[in-house]
Specification:
Number of strands: 0
Structural class: mainly alpha
Order of helices and strands: HHHHHHHHHHH
Distance between the termini: 45 Å
Strand content: under 5%
Largest sheet: none
C-alpha cells in the first residue's frame, strides 16, 4: 500500500498537488463516512472506510517524509511509545524509560509498587490515563485542553464532561442530574416567555449540556442516540413522502392529520 502511494505521489497529477491543507476537508469527510458505516454496523462499508481513513494517515506521513519532518515509522513508533507509557498497569517501567528496579536478594519479593499500577477497572484506567497525559512532556497542559476545538458540539460536551469526571469532578449520585435537567428546562421556558433570544439560546445550551450529562451518567452515548433518532425520522418521513408520490399529491397539499396517520403506519411497520 505504501509503495502504491509512493507511485501515485510521483505519477498522478492529482496526488502530486495534495497538501495537508487540501487533504484536510477530505479527511473530515472520510471520517464521517466511517462513522456512518459504524452506526449502520455495515461490515463491508466499515472495512472499506477504514482503508480510506488509513490512506489519509499514510498520505500525511508521506508529506511529512518529503519535508524531512517524520515518516510513517515515526508515527507508529510514537503511538507505540505513548500506548506503553499510558498503560503502566500492563507494562514494566523499563519499557517507558523508567529505571529498572534494583534486584533484591534471592528469595525476597519486590514490594515496591509503581504509581498507577493498581488499575483493575475501566474507570481506573481512564482516570490514570488523564493523569499520565498531564505529566507527559508534550501532553495536555490542562485537563480540558485535550478536547479538540473542532469536535462537533454534542461530542465535545460529552468529552468535556468525561474528562472532568476522570479527575473527580462529577455527580456523587447520578439521579441528582435530573434536578439539574428540570432546572435548566424551567430557565429556558422562562427566557422564551420573555422573548430574549440571546438568553434563550444560552439556556438552551445549558439544557442540552445537562441532558448530555444525564446520558453520560447512565452510560448512554448521546451522539449515537441522536443519530439513531435521525435515521428513524428519515425512514418515517420517507414513508410519508413515498405515499404522497404514489397518491400524486405533493406533501404541502396533505393535511397534518394525514401525515400523522402515515407516520403512525410507518411506526407500526417498524415493529413487525
Amino acid at each position: 500500500m505504501l509503495d502504491v502511494l509512493d507511485q501515485l505521489r510521483e505519477k498522478c497529477p492529482w496526488d502530486k498537488k495534495q497538501t495537508n491543507d487540501s487533504l484536510r476537508p477530505n479527511t473530515i469527510e472520510e471520517t464521517y463516512e466511517l462513522c456512518d458505516a459504524l452506526v449502520k454496523d455495515d461490515v463491508h462499508e466499515i472495512c472499506k472506510e477504514l482503508g480510506d481513513v488509513l490512506l489519509h494517515v499514510c498520505f500525511y506521513a508521506k508529506i511529512g517524509q518529503e519535508k524531512n519532518q517524520f515518516d510513517i515509522s515515526d508515527v507508529c513508533n510514537k503511538l507505540t511509545d505513548k500506548l506503553i507509557f499510558r498503560h503502566p498497569h500492563i507494562y514494566h517501567p523499563s519499557q517507558v524509560g523508567a529505571p529498572e528496579p534494583k534486584p533484591l536478594p534471592y528469595g525476597e519479593e519486590q514490594t515496591e509498587q509503581r504509581e498507577f499500577a493498581d488499575a483493575k477497572t475501566q474507570e481506573q484506567v481512564l482516570e490514570n490515563w488523564e493523569q499520565i497525559k498531564l505529566r507527559e512532556k508534550d501532553g495536555n497542559k490542562t485537563v480540558l485542553s485535550g478536547v479538540p476545538a473542532a469536535l462537533p458540539s454534542l461530542i465535545k460536551a460529552y468529552r468535556i464532561q468525561d474528562k472532568a469526571r476522570n479527575v473527580g469532578f462529577d455527580w456523587e449520585d447520578r439521579r441528582d442530574v435530573w434536578k439539574k435537567v428540570r432546572e435548566e428546562m424551567d430557565e429556558l421556558e422562562a427566557e422564551l416567555e420573555r422573548g430574549d433570544q440571546q438568553r434563550s439560546t444560552q439556556e438552551l445550551g445549558d439544557l442540552l449540556f445537562a441532558v448530555v450529562n444525564a446520558a453520560r451518567l447512565y452510560k448512554l452515548n448521546p451522539d449515537n442516540a441522536l443519530e439513531m433518532t435521525n435515521q428513524k425520522f428519515i425512514r418515517r418521513f420517507n414513508y410519508i413522502e413515498e405515499h404522497s408520490i404514489r397518491a400524486g399529491r405533493p406533501l404541502k397539499d396533505m393535511t397534518l392529520e394525514e401525515m400523522d396517520a402515515l407516520w403512525n403506519e410507518a411506526k407500526e411497520l417498524e415493529k413487525t
